[in-house]
Write a structure and sequence with these properties.
This protein has a single domain (2-97), classed as Winged helix-like DNA-binding domain superfamily/Winged helix DNA-binding domain (Arc Repressor Mutant, subunit A), CATH 1.10.10.10. The protein is 33% helix and 22% strand. The protein contains 4 helices and 9 strands. It has helices at 26-38, 45-52, 58-76, 103-106; strands spanning 2-5, 11-14, 17-18, 43-44, 81-84, 87-90, 95-97, 118-120, 129-131. It has a 4-stranded mixed beta sheet with strand order 3-2-1-7, covered by helices on one side. It has a 3-stranded antiparallel beta sheet with strand order 4-6-5. Helix 2 (45-52) crosses helix 3. The two termini are 27 Å apart.
């Protein structure tokens, strides 16, 4: 199982410890964070592209998302991100992330993290503040 750290900075850990290299590039981890926040619902490819590559034209942005998904499949396994048409979903049996009740996607300050944690959601990503309570 992989652990996705969302509070205080994005990080991905595997059974052998933290990942490094291209797999932990900020936007790649942001894809995992957004999918974790969307929980069972998942997100459409269009939404992910709009959130993470708004400066790119649609073709280039979709290509970047495809490359990101390919990296996940290569490094983390085929089933880490599940696709159903345009919808993408993080496989909760393979990636554990603190439940955020949609704070990343909703953009609601103080939407909160369970477990009493607090801090800046993926520091540097400019998303929201989260505090548990």
């Amino acid at each position: 199982m992989y652990r996705l750290k969302l509070l205080g900075g994005l990080a991905l850990e595997g059974p052998s410890g933290p990942f490094s290299g291209h797999i932990v590039h900020t936007r790649r981890l942001a894809v995992l964070a957004l999918l974790a926040a969307s929980r069972d619902t998942g997100l459409s490819r269009d939404k992910l592209v709009g959130y993470l590559w708004p400066e790119s034209d649609e073709e280039r942005a979709r290509h970047r998302l495809s490359n990101t998904l390919h990296s996940f499949r290569k490094e983390l396994g085929e089933e880490v991100v599940q696709a159903s048409g345009e919808m993408l979903r993080l496989n909760p049996e393979l990636v554990w992330a603190r439940a955020l009740r949609g704070a990343l996607c909703a953009g609601a300050p103080g939407a909160g993290a369970r477990g009493g944690g607090s801090g800046r959601l993926w520091e540097g990503g400019g998303v929201v503040e989260a505090s548990g309570g």
